[in-house]
Amino acid sequence: MSVLFTSISDDNPVKLDDAQSLLKPLGLTIDPAETEDFHTLLAAVHDCAETVSALPDYQPKSDHIRYPRENVRRPGADEQVLGQAWAHRFLVRGNPNGGPLAGKSVSLKDVIAVAGVPQLQGSDIIPSWTPTADATVVTRLLEAGANIEGTSTCENLCHSTSSYTSAQGTIENPHAPGYSAGGSTSGGAALVAAGMVDITIGGDQGGSIRVPAALCGCVGLKPTYGRVPFTGISSGDAINDHTGPLTRTTLDAATCLDVVSGYDGIDDRSVGSPKPGSTSFAATLKQSPERLDGVKIGILTEGFEHNAVDEAVKQVVLTAVKKFKDLGATIEEVSLPDHLHGPAIWTIQQRIAGAQTLLGQNTGRRGLYMTEMEHARLPWTDAGFQQAFPSTKNVIINGLYLASRFPGLYGKTANIGRQLSDKYEILFEKYDVLVMPTTPVVAPKHGQRGLPLESLRPSMGLTINTAIFNVTGHPAISIPVGFAPAKEDGQVELPVGMQIVGGLWQEAKILRASHAWETHVDWRKLH
Fold first, then answer.
1. Which of 104, 176, 254, 301 might form a disulfide with 198, Cβ 3.0–4.6 angstroms?
2. 43 and 78 together in one domain
3. With a threshold of 0.90, does the pTM exceed it?
4. Which residues form the Amidase domain (predicted)?
């Protein structure tokens, strides 16, 4: 439909040759006879843009009366722990009348909006920006009685599964200084594993909840795509967006999932999620039998046999799987060769959409757009690009290349991702859950910022078993199941994570398997 207009404003800045200049990089031209008309139409749309820009934005209202933000501050050296685990310290006290999370302490990955709290996103490319609205998960946590104690450091624009890329500083693994805490929910995972908070809410677009949970030794849950609204959380590729809890127990993860899940009337990712407050994952766990009689578990061959999987990690997870048999479950090996395509499919999606998002060109979703953030980070400057971590530069370069050289490839990867999801669903008709190592290795030593390959090497390969489930949307949980020696020093033992994956909307099954395992086994004693 054409733009309607009656006249062009006198101060309209559009020039006669602007339309042609916009088309020139694409190798397209305008017929000279049409130049005047397209100038008029472009000037008209400019006036429309000026009109919309002048209108007030529409952001959700945050309740600062019931939930005031106390003592918001950047922590000094005396407050920092585990390197630079905190982004901002503050206190927002939860519902005084209590709730399922009453008394629980929470940190939020520093991409989750808290009104009045500056957000850094692990970057120093742009000044911190301050949200005016709370993310949906923040509102729900507070209503459930949780106390939010701060935002935890994340990796640079969430583009790393290491824990040394944040502009705010390095996060130390709580089990061994000098080793990675994983990313990009690095600070939060370390805080939970060290017992400094009960819950962290993280973001997972390729493994950023499950990878740090595995490396730090805590529980990390990525729910089914869309179960938890992403409203008020910084996005990369909306197809891969997931948020969920990191905790020390499966029961806490289940309780948190009950609180934060359900469509919020804003985020179209969550339109298919059940009504808020209607799930009973925690109650079901408390009532479920301690054994797993009748449960069928598939050992995914490709998840173990990939050449990147360290033999010690493989053996720890296989030993852990045998505990399921002791609990009455049936265990069988199962193969899905297409599992190995997951990293490539995820990479194409993330690079193309990630570049568009970074450049302010990602559109097409109904939800909350965080316009304050967009104004802070756009337009890009060369100085900002030079200061970016190599992984961010790589996303932009890769995305621009793929979009220009492989037109239509993003759509094809989305189609193939749906095919992968369907193939997993066929497996879940036979098996209740599938198991595999969360990460192929235990925590590596920190890398260092240098040339791009040197900077990116410590993260390479860590998501071979996690990223595919961001593509397919299946729920997956990582639980700690023992220790294996560090590659760099055999005297250093670090946690090993086992990933348990279920059918779409079947969180109850992975939570039951996880809860039964940890109820009968103390992973900390499995050295």
1. 104
2. no
3. yes
4. 95-511
